Amino acid sequence: MYTYFIADDETKIRQGIRRLIDWETLGFSFIGEASNGEDALRFILDKNPDVTLLDIRMPRLSGLDVARLARADGYRGIIIILSGYSDFKYAQEAMRYDVKYYISKPVDEDELTDYLKKVTDELSVREKHTSAIEYFSEKARDGILSDVLTGSSRISDQDLKELGLLSGCYQAAIYEKYSHNAAAVSYRFSDLLRLTNEDNHSFDTLTIDNNEVILLKGDFAIRRFSDFVERFEREVKPQKGSPLDSLFITYGHVVYRPEEITESYQEALFLLKMRFYCDQGQHTFGYHQLPARRTSLTSAGIGALQEYQDRLLGYIQTLNREMVAESLDSLREQIYLSSAPIEEIRLFLIDLYLQVKESIRYHYHTFDIPFPPNSWAVDFINTRYYLYEIITFLSEQAEMIMRSLGTTSRESTLENVIHYIQHNYMSSLKLERIAPLFGYNSAYLGKLFTQKMGMNFTAYLDQVRIDASMELLRDGSLKVYEIAEKVGYSNVDYFHTKFKKIVGESPAEYRRKFRS
Predict the structure, then answer these.
(1) At residue 7, what are phi and psi to the nearest 5 degrees?
(2) What pairs with residue 52 in β-bridges?
(3) Domain CATH number, residue 268
(4) What confidence tens digit (pLDDT) does each residue in 481-494 have?
(5) In this structure, are 177 and 240 located in the same domain?
(6) Which residues, 6 or more positions from 139, have their beta carbon under 8 angstroms from its beta carbon?
(7) Total domains present in the chain
(8) What is the pTM of this model?
(9) Domain of 487, in residue numbers
(10) Are residues 117 and 228 in the same domain?
(11) With bands split at pLDDT 50, 70 and 90, how would you rate the model's confidence at 182?
């Protein structure tokens, strides 16, 4: 039983053709129908019906376009064109696409029956001429092509020549869906590429480990591909739903010997795995877009978690948006240059976010900062497909924190410095460390501080720390050495000296006096 498929934009015509004759008696079973050219082309290439009845005038793609593209993609079924009398002039063009049967509308029962009897004879002859050797030869060709790409075995030049795989140069490319959340892509890059190649044998397509692989053969195909990629990267901004918007392409470098093909393929495969580093809206990723040398995680700098935590925490607290952005940009660059596994990078970014968050909550526990739950943040970072999405999240969180701290009300730099000291006095603060956070050198900031406050930076810091210690002494729950550490003094004797100098009595005397 042979299969037949009908494509016509009018439902009544499709139904009429199915009812016009006894298809089963003639040896045909209905396999499907379509109302526009695009759906018809997809169905034909997917289901490969034995007989296709095509209306010439259909939306999206005409019947002749469908015939042309289907033939270009290797469809060998019988095509019968349906057309009104005024479109009969297209019959000659249809013959170029191996269309031997052309029926005018309205379809005549006897004419269609006669055609189908001839079609049955033709299909029968084809079956007799299609030997098992030819079938297995095609399967063997796919296997050989897979071996060439993966480097699984060495193929002689003579075998490559007989299979049409021998050429002067080669390049491997891989394509997949651009959007991870999109429905199945309705266009294949090989279809688009075929339209730009006058020689349909200038590239081969193959599926390896669920990846759609293209092997470009010869200078012509490689130049056409290069022109497409260059124009795509430089000019094209694909519209939603367009063929280009559905594609993401990686490609290796051009090689000149068959045994080097696997190198180009492995590069394209590696780039596909490194898609995590792509920019927003990036549709292509070539071998030249990765650094020549990739450093280890630690040597690249992102292993120093404390370093980035301190930088971000400092710039957030000093409301330095420019330096927050610069630090995140530097972080992204260091990650890009690293050779760390992507899962390790995710863990690093999770740790960085949670530590900055907890530090802010500790220093500003009286502020109402709308942090998302830790579980949500961890899940968000773990499920992002791209690094830029995580960096954007960190940037948005930093901005949210700065807004929550009431940043706009403190107008002068000095007020920002004082605010920073009052919330970080328990840390090891030095003017040399604080000044760069505000974009100043330490000498200038120290001079400005003394002029405005009537005391130098160190004296003011001591005053803030002692004031905090007095409150803790009045609370009475901590020992004196614990209070010293809590307000920023690592040496309890030094704390005693400073306390007595500022308050006029020792910490123990102050506590006894307060209790009495």
Answers:
(1) -125, 115
(2) 5, 79
(3) 3.30.70
(4) 999 999 999 889 99
(5) yes
(6) none
(7) 4
(8) 0.54
(9) 417-515
(10) no
(11) very low
